[in-house]
Specification:
A hairpin with a 6-residue loop joins strand 4 and strand 5. Strands 1-2-3-4-5 form a 5-stranded antiparallel β-sheet, with no helix packed on it. Strands 6-7-8-9 form a 4-stranded antiparallel β-sheet, with no helix packed on it. By secondary structure, the protein is mostly beta strands. The protein contains 1 helix and 9 strands. 5% of the residues lie in helices and 37% in strands.
């Protein structure tokens, strides 16, 4: 069975480092590093669990740090990490670039926020959804990308407004 979880990365890191839930604590302003010692950049993170593996493999997808040169603090990429223990994360890579997205009638660079991944049960393809917008929040779209494997390569497909309405925050189950 596949599961999707939505987390606050800082709270999640603190929880995973505790021996029991009762001992968990949240520490503000603590940098969470990947297995290469570099800061994890998975802002607005979502998890996808491959329980068919032993042990299970957890994938964490999120937006890169928001410091793109010449932009209004917009993320350059969507990043992917993987691990087997929910505490130690290997950086898989920048799986989708801000520059690979296009929206008819609007101009980037784009806001990339809260990406989430699901797997289509019929085609077995992976589909990623995220809040896609301009720097000034003028379009309120959902971005869509697809891949044959969770590690990619990912291809931007399109964006849309669900039922013709602006979309900002979303949850997928």
């Amino acid at each position: 069975m596949r599961a999707i979880l939505f987390i606050n990365v800082v709270a999640f890191a603190a929880f995973c480092s505790a021996s029991t839930p009762e001992n968990a604590s949240i520490s503000s302003y603590v940098i969470w590093n990947d297995t290469n010692g570099k800061p994890v950049h998975a802002h607005g993170a979502g998890l996808w669990v491959d329980a068919s593996q032993t042990p299970s493999i957890y994938y964490m997808v999120g937006a890169s740090i928001k410091n793109s040169p010449g932009s209004t603090a917009l993320s350059q990429f969507i990043n992917l990490y993987k691990g087997t223990d929910l505490q130690h994360w290997d950086f898989v890579g920048n799986i989708l670039a801000n520059t690979s997205m296009s929206v008819p009638g609007a101009k980037g660079p784009w806001r990339i926020e809260r990406p989430k991944i699901v797997q289509c049960s019929g085609t077995k393809k992976f589909v990623m959804y995220w809040h896609l917008d301009t720097a000034s929040f003028s379009i309120g779209h959902v971005g869509v990308a697809v891949a044959d494997t969770i590690e990619g390569p990912w291809t931007f497909s399109h964006s849309f407004q669900p039922d013709g309405q602006r979309s900002l925050d979303m949850g997928l189950y």
